[in-house]
């Protein structure tokens, strides 16, 4: 069975940027697993810090929110609690990610783009996700499970795409699951300011889905979209 693995630096990232892809996958009976390297406890939980919560409390809050969002999306979720701001790249953390690849055997991988001048944790997560993918492919790498194939990697859309060298060369129609994405976003009140922003973005990407699909598909007026960027070339037997 095909499966989706989402490597997310912080607890909320997978929701804003990839909830549509996750909900589409699970609605079609596919397995989806979210791997959160940290809770985003220091860098993406400003509201909770202002309310005087402790680090332990904030981690618990963010875990609960992300679990609820994953539940809405029908996805599994695992937290590695590797710490954020900064998210440290270590061989141990990469090894833990390799083991998740070997267990999930994903047919598709989603993660952050490799550039983000506003947030060093995001490219760090991407670098580790990519390195772990390559290591998981090696038959000689010492981790349980079979060597990984060559699942395509899609970068999901960063908050400020132009500055992150993000060019949306894949547009995903998420219209059938947009309400599910909205419900998942509403599981994250710690970042309530993002709900409308990412709903508006889905509308704009939806316009581009329609424009690039052309009129023959007859997509509806309210088409909603998510943008992705492929890292590796698409392999195909015919150009279509
Ligand atoms: Zn983040």
What does this protein look like?
The protein is of the alpha/beta class and 240 residues long. The protein has a single domain, classed as Rossmann fold. Helix content is 41%, strand content 14%. It has 7 helices and 7 strands, in the order βαβααβαβαββααβ. A 7-stranded mixed sheet has the order 3-2-1-4-5-7-6, sandwiched between helices. Helix 5 links the parallel strand 4 and strand 5. The site of zinc ion has 7 residues, from loops.
Spell out the blueprint of helices and strands.
Elements: E1 3-8, H1 13-27, E2 31-36, H2 46-50, H3 55-73, E3 76-79, H4 91-104, E4 108-111, H5 121-137, E5 153-156, E6 170-173, H6 178-185, H7 193-213, E7 225-230
Parallel strand pairs: 1-2, 1-4, 2-3, 4-5
Antiparallel strand pairs: 5-7, 6-7
Zinc ion binds at residues 9-10, 13, 40, 44, 119, 122.
Short précis:
With 240 residues, this protein is an alpha/beta fold. It has helices at 13-27, 46-50, 55-73, 91-104, 121-137, 178-185, 193-213, and strands at residues 3-8, 31-36, 76-79, 108-111, 153-156, 170-173, 225-230.
What keywords describe this structure?
240 residues, alpha/beta, Rossmann fold, 7-stranded mixed beta sheet, 7 helices, 41% helix, binds zinc ion
């Amino acid at each position: 069975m095909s499966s989706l693995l989402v490597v997310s630096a912080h607890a909320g990232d997978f929701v804003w940027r990839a909830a549509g892809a996750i909900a589409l996958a699970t609605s079609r009976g596919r397995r989806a697993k979210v791997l959160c390297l940290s809770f985003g406890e220091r860098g993406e939980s400003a509201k909770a810090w202002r309310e005087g919560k402790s680090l332990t409390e904030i981690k618990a809050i963010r875990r609960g929110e992300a679990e609820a969002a994953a539940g809405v999306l029908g996805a599994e979720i695992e937290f590695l609690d590797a710490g954020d701001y900064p998210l440290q790249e270590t061989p141990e953390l990469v090894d833990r990610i390799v083991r998740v690849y070997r267990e999930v055997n994903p047919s598709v991988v989603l993660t952050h783009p490799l550039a983000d001048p506003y947030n060093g944790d995001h490219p760090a997560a991407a670098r580790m996700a990519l390195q772990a993918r390559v290591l998981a492919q090696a038959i000689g790498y010492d981790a349980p499970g079979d060597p990984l194939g060559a699942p395509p990697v899609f970068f999901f859309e960063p908050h400020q795409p132009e500055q992150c060298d993000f060019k949306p060369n894949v547009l995903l129609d998420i219209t059938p699951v947009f309400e599910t994405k909205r419900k998942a976003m509403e599981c994250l009140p710690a970042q309530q300011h993002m709900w409308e922003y990412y709903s508006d973005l889905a509308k704009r990407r939806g316009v581009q889905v329609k424009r690039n699909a052309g009129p023959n598909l007859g997509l509806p007026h309210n088409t909603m979209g998510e943008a992705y960027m492929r890292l590796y070339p698409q392999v195909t037997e015919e150009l279509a």
